């Protein structure tokens, strides 16, 4: 697996861990099956929504994030095909959308504070619906279930490897996006793909060609300039300039039109490959994005927007903290600025959740990007765990493949 899987590893956690799915969060208009009716937000908020995993990576209290930053929109990740196969939408491949109440509770809590959400489909891990569904129509029908369930006004297509290496899957995804655009007038759609020094790579360019062949234009095409040999803001803005040229040559746009359809999705702090992006880098990229009137500014992720404990996280990339010095939600505030609001200076209403696996534990915190072999130990959720054999990306628990042995509380 790519090191980037710390962004997307899936686990089944209880609604109690969410801190948001409690009863009583629904608003008028909630029929008990989905989330409360959405508020009316400008498209600038959907363009600025940072990613949040509501069921994994130690999700923070979204309401506290909103209070601390002034944020009004989150990009919830990820909608996938079921791990066991099929063409129906699930969260992380494990939690069916049709019977979901946990994510609906999170959405209702966000909407209760005047915010809203977009859902992101795809990502790096798991099986994508574009791979599992037979046609664009079937793929669109699966995504329409998500739109209808939560009353969504925005959707993000995160098209990455290995899916974007599959021409048929990308044809399904782009075709589905076009169908959703036609069936849901006004829906905000973003297409997110890998970034390279050339803007995007061969498969990203093929995806742009597919969009052109289907006469499909989303609200933006966004690249992720990290995990590809990047180093700070200058390398990212250079990639954005190159990507602008690709959009111009593909669609025949002028520079301004291309920037008006261009976005960026960053990784705050330490990336999976050891690149570092600080608050100063975010400010530089924000200045570039606003100066060029770009269409989107987001990042992976709110779950990571807090300082690790210990602060350097032993030099490792984490899905639950940034691995750089920061105050809670420093990076999220740049999204708020892009949306046109002024972040508050007051602290969060509730303290940020402590990343799992630290505290008084002496073993290093579990990291999904680390390869563990038999005898290796890691700390997670206040317990020390020992690997029985080789494993990577399987969160410590007494279930799963049985690879982890619980050595008890720290």
Written overview of the protein:
With 410 residues, the chain is of the alpha/beta class. Helix 6 (167-183) crosses helix 7 (202-213). Helix content is 29%, strand content 17%. The chain is built from 11 helices and 15 strands.
Helices and strands in order, then pairings?
Layout: H1 43-48, E1 51-52, H2 62-69, E2 73-80, E3 90-91, E4 95-96, H3 102-112, E5 116-122, H4 129-132, H5 136-150, E6 154-159, H6 167-183, E7 188-194, H7 202-213, E8 220-224, H8 233-251, H9 255-259, E9 262-267, E10 269-270, E11 276-277, H10 279-291, E12 296-300, H11 332-339, E13 377-380, E14 383-387, E15 404-409
Strand residue percentage: 15-25%
The biggest beta sheet, please? 10 strands, mixed
Q: Please state the overall shape, judged from the principal axes of the Cα atoms.
A: globular
Bin the helical content: 25-40%
Helix/strand-derived category reads alpha/beta
Summarize the structure.
The chain is an alpha/beta fold and 410 residues long. It has helices spanning 43-48, 62-69, 102-112, 129-132, 136-150, 167-183, 202-213, 233-251, 255-259, 279-291, 332-339; strands at residues 51-52, 73-80, 90-91, 95-96, 116-122, 154-159, 188-194, 220-224, 262-267, 269-270, 276-277, 296-300, 377-380, 383-387, 404-409. Strands 1, 2, 3, 4, 5, 6, 7, 8, 9 and 12 form a ten-stranded mixed β-sheet that branches.
């Amino acid at each position: 697996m790519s090191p980037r899987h710390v962004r997307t590893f899936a686990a089944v956690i209880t609604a109690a861990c969410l801190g948001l799915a409690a009863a009583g969060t629904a608003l008028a208009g909630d029929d008990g099956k989905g989330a409360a009716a959405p508020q009316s937000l400008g498209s600038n908020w959907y363009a600025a929504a940072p990613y949040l995993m509501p069921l994994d990576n130690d999700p923070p209290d979204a309401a506290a994030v909103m209070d601390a930053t002034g944020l009004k929109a989150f990009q919830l990740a990820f909608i996938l095909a079921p791990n066991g196969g099929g063409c129906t939408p699930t969260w992380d491949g494990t939690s069916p959308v049709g019977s979901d109440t946990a994510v609906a509770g999170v959405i209702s809590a966000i909407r209760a504070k005047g915010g809203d959400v977009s859902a992101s489909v795809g990502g790096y891990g798991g099986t994508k619906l574009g791979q599992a569904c037979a046609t664009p129509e079937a793929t669109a029908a699966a995504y329409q279930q998500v739109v209808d369930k939560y009353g969504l006004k925005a959707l993000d297509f995160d098209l990455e490897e290995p899916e974007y290496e599959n021409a048929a899957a990308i044809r399904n995804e782009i075709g589905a996006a076009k169908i959703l655009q036609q069936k849901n007038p006004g829906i905000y759609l973003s297409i997110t793909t890998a970034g390279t020094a050339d803007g995007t790579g061969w498969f990203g360019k093929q995806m742009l060609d597919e969009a052109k062949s289907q006469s499909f234009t989303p609200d933006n095409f966004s690249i992720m300039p990290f995990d590809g040999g990047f180093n700070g803001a200058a390398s990212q803005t250079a990639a954005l300039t190159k990507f602008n040229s690709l959009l111009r040559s593909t669609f025949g746009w002028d520079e301004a039109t291309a920037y008006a359809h261009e976005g960026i999705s960053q990784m705050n702090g330490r990336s999976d490959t050891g690149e570092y992006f600080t608050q100063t880098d975010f400010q530089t990229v924000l200045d570039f994005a606003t100066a060029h009137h770009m269409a989107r500014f987001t990042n992976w992720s709110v779950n990571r927007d807090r300082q690790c404990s210990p602060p350097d996280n032993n030099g490792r990339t984490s899905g639950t903290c940034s691995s750089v010095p920061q105050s809670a939600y420093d990076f999220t505030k740049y999204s708020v600025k892009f949306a046109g609001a002024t972040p508050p200076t007051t602290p969060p209403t509730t303290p940020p959740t402590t990343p799992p696996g630290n505290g008084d534990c002496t073993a290093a915190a579990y990291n999904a990007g680390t390869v563990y072999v038999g005898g290796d130990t890691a700390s997670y959720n206040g317990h020390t765990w020992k690997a029985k054999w080789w494993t990577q990306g399987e969160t410590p628990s007494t279930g799963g493949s049985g690879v982890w042995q619980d050595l008890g509380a720290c």
